[in-house]
Queue: 2 jobs
Job 1
Amino acid sequence: MPSTFRQQAESNQTTRKQNKQRSPVAGVAWYSANQWEQLCEVAADPEQLEKTYQKWLVVAEQVCQKMEASGIAIVKVPVEVQKLIDWCRERNVPVDGKARAQYVVELMRSGALSNANEASENR
């Protein structure tokens, strides 16, 4: 089974600063079925991705459950693949597991995620 998703989650976990009074937080790239299809078409490492959206979803949920059980707070970060592609082009990097993980970290650090959540809550 491809291990990129697990590696990405672990990478994101280690990039978080741990506050003694807070649980560590890990951002996890989260895709809709349509976005997953697009990712599979453009990924530089398609062999590292699960073959179907449903298989990815099962693995993703299992990884999130294990991380949460170990005391890590999970943030599911919705990824729009075109924005990921643009981000990778700006940095001249392939759309691979390392880039996807870094993209999620940057989204979380930039506050873009909280702004998107606030907008959806105000609807």
Job 2
Amino acid sequence: MKTGTKICTMMCAALFAATAAFAENPKAPDADPVAAQFFPPELIMMNAKAIGLKDSQKLAIVADVKALQEDVEPLALRMEAARDRLIATLEKETVNEAAVLKALEDVLAIERSVKTRHITALVRIRNQLNADQRAELRSIR
């Protein structure tokens, strides 16, 4: 597996895992109120029968996850390069503050783009579900 593909897979998995972790205990004191509005694809698929998920919904959710992975892969490569530039800037004997902040901004901009794509995918996945399915998933959590 190529490095970029590994990073992409890891980033997507981490983003969905964060949502899944919240799904396990949405009442925790440090629970993310934004994540509370979404359902991890894993939770949906594991409970497909219980919530009456149609084949068309499954296909749409799988397509949304695949599209996210395809969108994030090039960003993962850019993220790795930006992170390497930041590290190289920080490894110098005397650190140039402006250069570090610029390199950091590059990393953060890519992270923002990844998170935006992640939320977009979660919105699309949520919109595949009807009100009864969402209610059932809330009760399963």
